[in-house]
Amino acid sequence: MKSSTSAASDFFLAFVLFVIMALTGYIVLSMGLERTGAIHSSGKGKPIENQVPQESHQGKPSDSPPPGQNDSQAEAAASTPNEGLSKQDSAGKTSDNKDVTHSIQDIVSTVDQGQWQVAEAMLLEYLKLHPNDEQALVEMAMIQLIDKRDSLAAKPYLEKVALGNPNNESVINELLTIYEETNTYQEGLAFLKSIPNEKRNSGIVDYGIGSALVGHGDSEGAVEYLYRALDQGGVERATVQETLADAFLDAGRVDEAIQGYIELLDQGGSTERQRALNVKVVTAYLDRGDQDLAVETVREWLREHPQDEFMNDLFKDISSLE
Questions:
Q1: How far apart are CA 207 and CA 256, in angstroms?
Q2: Using the 8-state DSSP alphabet, how is residue 193 labeled?
Q3: Which of 12, 108, 279, 322 has the highest Cβ tally under 10 A?
Q4: pLDDT averaged over the chain?
Q5: Sign of CA dihedral 43, 107, 84, 150
Q6: Mean pLDDT of 261-285
Q7: Residues 272-295: what's their mean pLDDT?
Q8: What DSSP string runs through 120-170?
Protein backbone atom coordinates (compact mmCIF):
# COMPACT_ATOMS: atom_id res chain seq x y z
CA MET A 1 0.00 0.00 0.00
CA LYS A 2 2.99 2.27 0.40
CA SER A 3 4.31 1.94 -3.10
CA SER A 4 5.86 5.41 -3.15
CA THR A 5 7.62 5.10 0.18
CA SER A 6 10.73 3.24 1.27
CA ALA A 7 11.62 1.24 4.35
CA ALA A 8 12.53 4.54 5.96
CA SER A 9 8.99 5.68 5.29
CA ASP A 10 7.63 2.61 7.07
CA PHE A 11 9.71 3.44 10.13
CA PHE A 12 8.59 7.05 10.01
CA LEU A 13 4.93 6.05 9.73
CA ALA A 14 5.24 3.92 12.86
CA PHE A 15 6.81 6.88 14.65
CA VAL A 16 3.98 9.19 13.58
CA LEU A 17 1.40 6.71 14.89
CA PHE A 18 3.19 6.72 18.24
CA VAL A 19 3.14 10.51 18.34
CA ILE A 20 -0.57 10.53 17.53
CA MET A 21 -1.26 8.50 20.64
CA ALA A 22 0.69 10.97 22.74
CA LEU A 23 -1.04 13.96 21.18
CA THR A 24 -4.58 12.71 21.50
CA GLY A 25 -4.33 10.83 24.77
CA TYR A 26 -5.69 7.86 22.86
CA ILE A 27 -6.84 5.31 25.39
CA VAL A 28 -8.80 2.42 23.99
CA LEU A 29 -10.22 1.11 27.18
CA SER A 30 -11.00 2.72 30.48
CA MET A 31 -10.20 5.85 32.40
CA GLY A 32 -10.52 3.83 35.59
CA LEU A 33 -12.89 3.98 38.50
CA GLU A 34 -12.66 7.09 40.65
CA ARG A 35 -13.92 7.54 44.20
CA THR A 36 -16.27 10.37 43.36
CA GLY A 37 -19.58 8.54 43.26
CA ALA A 38 -19.81 8.92 39.47
CA ILE A 39 -19.91 5.15 39.17
CA HIS A 40 -23.09 5.13 41.28
CA SER A 41 -25.11 6.03 38.25
CA SER A 42 -28.46 5.29 36.77
CA GLY A 43 -27.14 6.13 33.30
CA LYS A 44 -24.99 8.56 31.32
CA GLY A 45 -22.69 9.27 34.23
CA LYS A 46 -25.20 11.13 36.39
CA PRO A 47 -24.62 10.22 40.05
CA ILE A 48 -27.43 8.86 42.14
CA GLU A 49 -27.93 9.78 45.77
CA ASN A 50 -25.60 8.71 48.58
CA GLN A 51 -22.38 9.25 46.65
CA VAL A 52 -19.15 7.79 47.96
CA PRO A 53 -16.76 10.66 48.83
CA GLN A 54 -13.33 10.95 47.23
CA GLU A 55 -11.62 10.10 50.52
CA SER A 56 -13.46 6.80 50.95
CA HIS A 57 -11.65 3.46 51.10
CA GLN A 58 -8.60 4.56 53.03
CA GLY A 59 -7.87 1.14 54.51
CA LYS A 60 -4.75 -0.76 53.49
CA PRO A 61 -4.99 -3.88 51.34
CA SER A 62 -5.02 -7.13 53.23
CA ASP A 63 -4.88 -10.78 52.26
CA SER A 64 -7.01 -11.80 55.23
CA PRO A 65 -10.79 -11.96 54.81
CA PRO A 66 -12.97 -9.54 56.75
CA PRO A 67 -15.01 -10.73 59.74
CA GLY A 68 -17.74 -13.12 58.71
CA GLN A 69 -16.64 -13.48 55.08
CA ASN A 70 -15.32 -16.39 53.11
CA ASP A 71 -14.91 -16.85 49.38
CA SER A 72 -18.18 -18.76 48.97
CA GLN A 73 -20.14 -16.00 50.70
CA ALA A 74 -18.69 -13.31 48.45
CA GLU A 75 -19.40 -15.34 45.33
CA ALA A 76 -22.97 -16.02 46.42
CA ALA A 77 -23.63 -12.35 47.12
CA ALA A 78 -22.55 -11.35 43.63
CA SER A 79 -24.12 -14.23 41.72
CA THR A 80 -27.71 -13.92 42.95
CA PRO A 81 -30.01 -13.76 39.88
CA ASN A 82 -30.51 -10.23 38.67
CA GLU A 83 -34.09 -9.02 38.67
CA GLY A 84 -33.44 -5.33 38.15
CA LEU A 85 -31.41 -3.03 40.34
CA SER A 86 -32.91 -1.17 43.27
CA LYS A 87 -31.68 1.88 45.10
CA GLN A 88 -31.99 2.40 48.83
CA ASP A 89 -33.48 5.58 50.28
CA SER A 90 -32.06 7.73 53.10
CA ALA A 91 -34.21 5.99 55.71
CA GLY A 92 -32.42 2.70 55.23
CA LYS A 93 -35.25 1.06 53.31
CA THR A 94 -35.49 -0.24 49.80
CA SER A 95 -38.22 0.58 47.30
CA ASP A 96 -40.37 -2.25 48.73
CA ASN A 97 -40.19 -0.47 52.13
CA LYS A 98 -38.46 -3.33 53.96
CA ASP A 99 -36.26 -2.46 56.92
CA VAL A 100 -32.59 -3.37 56.68
CA THR A 101 -29.94 -3.91 59.33
CA HIS A 102 -27.65 -1.23 57.95
CA SER A 103 -28.25 1.65 55.60
CA ILE A 104 -25.89 2.42 52.76
CA GLN A 105 -25.02 5.64 54.59
CA ASP A 106 -23.93 3.57 57.62
CA ILE A 107 -21.75 1.39 55.43
CA VAL A 108 -20.16 4.29 53.54
CA SER A 109 -19.49 6.04 56.85
CA THR A 110 -17.75 2.90 58.11
CA VAL A 111 -15.54 2.87 55.02
CA ASP A 112 -14.76 6.57 55.49
CA GLN A 113 -13.50 5.76 58.97
CA GLY A 114 -10.99 3.32 57.48
CA GLN A 115 -12.89 0.22 58.64
CA TRP A 116 -13.38 -1.33 55.23
CA GLN A 117 -13.27 -4.88 56.59
CA VAL A 118 -16.22 -4.15 58.87
CA ALA A 119 -17.98 -2.43 55.99
CA GLU A 120 -17.44 -5.45 53.77
CA ALA A 121 -19.08 -7.72 56.35
CA MET A 122 -21.99 -5.27 56.62
CA LEU A 123 -22.38 -5.29 52.83
CA LEU A 124 -22.46 -9.08 52.73
CA GLU A 125 -25.36 -9.08 55.16
CA TYR A 126 -27.08 -6.26 53.31
CA LEU A 127 -26.75 -7.99 49.93
CA LYS A 128 -28.33 -11.15 51.31
CA LEU A 129 -31.51 -9.16 51.82
CA HIS A 130 -31.17 -6.85 48.82
CA PRO A 131 -29.03 -8.62 46.20
CA ASN A 132 -29.88 -6.16 43.41
CA ASP A 133 -29.09 -2.87 45.14
CA GLU A 134 -26.87 -1.06 42.63
CA GLN A 135 -25.07 1.15 45.12
CA ALA A 136 -24.32 -1.72 47.46
CA LEU A 137 -22.95 -3.81 44.60
CA VAL A 138 -20.73 -0.94 43.45
CA GLU A 139 -19.56 -0.24 47.00
CA MET A 140 -18.60 -3.88 47.40
CA ALA A 141 -16.76 -3.80 44.07
CA MET A 142 -14.84 -0.70 45.15
CA ILE A 143 -13.71 -2.43 48.33
CA GLN A 144 -12.40 -5.34 46.26
CA LEU A 145 -10.67 -3.04 43.77
CA ILE A 146 -9.29 -0.32 46.01
CA ASP A 147 -8.84 -1.81 49.45
CA LYS A 148 -8.13 -5.45 48.63
CA ARG A 149 -6.71 -4.88 45.14
CA ASP A 150 -8.50 -7.95 43.90
CA SER A 151 -9.89 -7.25 40.43
CA LEU A 152 -11.26 -10.75 39.96
CA ALA A 153 -13.31 -10.45 43.15
CA ALA A 154 -14.76 -7.12 41.97
CA LYS A 155 -15.75 -8.45 38.54
CA PRO A 156 -18.96 -10.35 39.44
CA TYR A 157 -20.35 -7.37 41.38
CA LEU A 158 -19.75 -4.98 38.46
CA GLU A 159 -21.10 -7.47 35.95
CA LYS A 160 -24.28 -7.72 37.97
CA VAL A 161 -24.63 -3.93 37.88
CA ALA A 162 -24.00 -3.95 34.13
CA LEU A 163 -26.72 -6.55 33.56
CA GLY A 164 -29.25 -4.45 35.45
CA ASN A 165 -28.04 -1.06 34.24
CA PRO A 166 -25.97 -1.35 31.04
CA ASN A 167 -26.07 2.43 30.63
CA ASN A 168 -23.63 3.00 33.51
CA GLU A 169 -20.58 4.08 31.52
CA SER A 170 -18.18 4.03 34.49
CA VAL A 171 -19.06 0.41 35.28
CA ILE A 172 -18.63 -0.70 31.65
CA ASN A 173 -15.25 1.05 31.42
CA GLU A 174 -14.07 -0.48 34.69
CA LEU A 175 -15.10 -3.94 33.54
CA LEU A 176 -13.06 -3.51 30.36
CA THR A 177 -10.04 -2.57 32.47
CA ILE A 178 -10.55 -5.61 34.70
CA TYR A 179 -10.81 -7.92 31.68
CA GLU A 180 -7.44 -6.60 30.50
CA GLU A 181 -5.77 -6.85 33.90
CA THR A 182 -7.01 -10.38 34.58
CA ASN A 183 -6.49 -11.74 31.08
CA THR A 184 -10.21 -12.51 30.73
CA TYR A 185 -10.71 -10.37 27.65
CA GLN A 186 -12.54 -12.95 25.52
CA GLU A 187 -14.77 -13.99 28.40
CA GLY A 188 -15.50 -10.34 29.14
CA LEU A 189 -16.43 -9.50 25.56
CA ALA A 190 -18.75 -12.49 25.51
CA PHE A 191 -20.42 -11.16 28.67
CA LEU A 192 -20.89 -7.65 27.25
CA LYS A 193 -22.32 -9.05 24.03
CA SER A 194 -24.78 -11.12 26.08
CA ILE A 195 -26.40 -8.06 27.72
CA PRO A 196 -29.95 -7.95 26.30
CA ASN A 197 -30.54 -5.16 23.81
CA GLU A 198 -33.89 -4.30 25.38
CA LYS A 199 -32.11 -3.15 28.54
CA ARG A 200 -29.92 -0.67 26.66
CA ASN A 201 -31.03 2.84 25.85
CA SER A 202 -27.59 4.07 24.80
CA GLY A 203 -24.54 2.97 22.83
CA ILE A 204 -22.29 2.66 25.89
CA VAL A 205 -21.97 -1.14 25.75
CA ASP A 206 -21.46 -1.20 21.97
CA TYR A 207 -18.82 1.52 22.19
CA GLY A 208 -17.03 -0.41 24.93
CA ILE A 209 -17.01 -3.55 22.79
CA GLY A 210 -15.90 -1.65 19.68
CA SER A 211 -13.07 0.24 21.36
CA ALA A 212 -11.84 -2.96 23.01
CA LEU A 213 -11.80 -4.75 19.66
CA VAL A 214 -9.76 -1.90 18.15
CA GLY A 215 -7.30 -2.20 21.01
CA HIS A 216 -6.93 -5.93 20.37
CA GLY A 217 -6.34 -5.59 16.64
CA ASP A 218 -9.79 -6.59 15.41
CA SER A 219 -10.62 -3.23 13.90
CA GLU A 220 -12.77 -4.69 11.14
CA GLY A 221 -14.88 -6.46 13.75
CA ALA A 222 -15.15 -3.24 15.74
CA VAL A 223 -16.79 -1.26 12.94
CA GLU A 224 -20.24 -2.84 13.40
CA TYR A 225 -20.32 -2.00 17.13
CA LEU A 226 -19.05 1.54 16.63
CA TYR A 227 -21.74 2.23 14.06
CA ARG A 228 -24.32 0.98 16.56
CA ALA A 229 -22.87 3.27 19.21
CA LEU A 230 -23.24 6.21 16.85
CA ASP A 231 -26.86 5.34 16.16
CA GLN A 232 -27.81 4.84 19.82
CA GLY A 233 -25.99 7.80 21.38
CA GLY A 234 -24.98 8.02 25.02
CA VAL A 235 -21.28 8.47 24.24
CA GLU A 236 -19.86 11.74 22.93
CA ARG A 237 -20.41 11.54 19.18
CA ALA A 238 -17.00 12.94 18.24
CA THR A 239 -15.32 10.32 20.44
CA VAL A 240 -17.12 7.49 18.65
CA GLN A 241 -16.45 9.04 15.24
CA GLU A 242 -12.72 9.27 15.92
CA THR A 243 -12.52 5.69 17.20
CA LEU A 244 -14.39 4.58 14.08
CA ALA A 245 -11.96 6.47 11.84
CA ASP A 246 -9.05 4.88 13.73
CA ALA A 247 -10.64 1.47 13.15
CA PHE A 248 -10.95 2.18 9.42
CA LEU A 249 -7.29 3.20 9.22
CA ASP A 250 -6.11 0.14 11.13
CA ALA A 251 -8.28 -2.13 8.97
CA GLY A 252 -6.80 -0.70 5.77
CA ARG A 253 -9.95 1.22 4.83
CA VAL A 254 -7.89 4.35 4.38
CA ASP A 255 -10.30 6.43 2.30
CA GLU A 256 -13.03 6.00 4.91
CA ALA A 257 -10.56 6.91 7.65
CA ILE A 258 -9.56 10.12 5.84
CA GLN A 259 -13.20 11.04 5.33
CA GLY A 260 -13.87 10.50 9.03
CA TYR A 261 -10.92 12.63 10.16
CA ILE A 262 -11.84 15.45 7.77
CA GLU A 263 -15.43 15.46 9.05
CA LEU A 264 -14.07 15.80 12.58
CA LEU A 265 -11.79 18.66 11.50
CA ASP A 266 -14.80 20.45 10.05
CA GLN A 267 -16.43 20.34 13.49
CA GLY A 268 -13.72 22.60 14.90
CA GLY A 269 -12.21 22.29 18.34
CA SER A 270 -9.08 23.28 20.22
CA THR A 271 -5.78 23.87 18.44
CA GLU A 272 -4.34 20.76 20.06
CA ARG A 273 -7.20 18.58 18.84
CA GLN A 274 -7.07 20.06 15.35
CA ARG A 275 -3.34 19.38 15.17
CA ALA A 276 -3.77 15.79 16.35
CA LEU A 277 -6.45 15.15 13.73
CA ASN A 278 -4.26 16.69 11.02
CA VAL A 279 -1.45 14.34 12.00
CA LYS A 280 -3.86 11.43 11.63
CA VAL A 281 -4.83 12.68 8.18
CA VAL A 282 -1.14 12.89 7.26
CA THR A 283 -0.64 9.34 8.53
CA ALA A 284 -3.55 8.11 6.42
CA TYR A 285 -2.21 9.82 3.29
CA LEU A 286 1.20 8.23 3.85
CA ASP A 287 -0.44 4.87 4.43
CA ARG A 288 -2.17 5.30 1.07
CA GLY A 289 1.14 6.22 -0.53
CA ASP A 290 0.10 9.81 -1.21
CA GLN A 291 3.12 11.78 -0.07
CA ASP A 292 2.14 14.96 -1.93
CA LEU A 293 -1.18 15.31 -0.09
CA ALA A 294 0.55 14.53 3.21
CA VAL A 295 3.06 17.33 2.60
CA GLU A 296 0.33 19.74 1.51
CA THR A 297 -1.71 19.01 4.66
CA VAL A 298 1.22 19.95 6.90
CA ARG A 299 2.06 22.98 4.75
CA GLU A 300 -1.49 24.26 5.07
CA TRP A 301 -1.33 23.88 8.85
CA LEU A 302 1.94 25.80 9.02
CA ARG A 303 0.45 28.72 7.10
CA GLU A 304 -1.74 29.38 10.16
CA HIS A 305 0.68 28.06 12.80
CA PRO A 306 4.17 28.86 11.51
CA GLN A 307 5.79 28.54 14.96
CA ASP A 308 4.58 24.98 15.56
CA GLU A 309 7.89 23.18 16.10
CA PHE A 310 6.44 19.68 15.92
CA MET A 311 4.68 20.30 12.61
CA ASN A 312 7.76 22.03 11.21
CA ASP A 313 9.81 18.94 12.04
CA LEU A 314 7.10 16.73 10.58
CA PHE A 315 7.13 18.79 7.38
CA LYS A 316 10.89 18.34 7.02
CA ASP A 317 10.68 14.61 7.65
CA ILE A 318 7.90 13.79 5.20
CA SER A 319 9.31 16.15 2.55
CA SER A 320 12.55 14.19 2.60
CA LEU A 321 10.93 10.77 2.15
CA GLU A 322 11.87 9.00 -1.04
A1: 19
A2: H
A3: 279
A4: 78
A5: positive
A6: 96
A7: 96
A8: HHHHHHHHHH-TTBHHHHHHHHHIIIIIS--HHHHHHHHHHHHHH-TT-HH
Q: Residue 83: CB partners within 8 Å, gap ≥ 6?
A: 132
Q: Please work out, in degrees rounded to the nearest 5, the angle formed at the alpha carbon of residue 217 by the alpha carbons of 213 and 220.
A: 70
Q: Which amino acid is at 86?
A: S
pLDDT of 73-109, one tens digit each?
445 555 554 445 554 443 344 444 445 467 888 888 8
Percentage of the residues of the chain whose pLDDT score is greater than 90: 59
Tell me the domain boundaries of the chain: 40-164
CA angle 228, 231, 236 (to 5 degrees): 95
HSE at residue 22, side-chain half, CA atoms within 13 A, is 7
pTM of the model: 0.70
pLDDT of residue 48 exceeding 50: no
CA geometry: angle at 32 spanning 214 and 265, to 5°?
A: 50
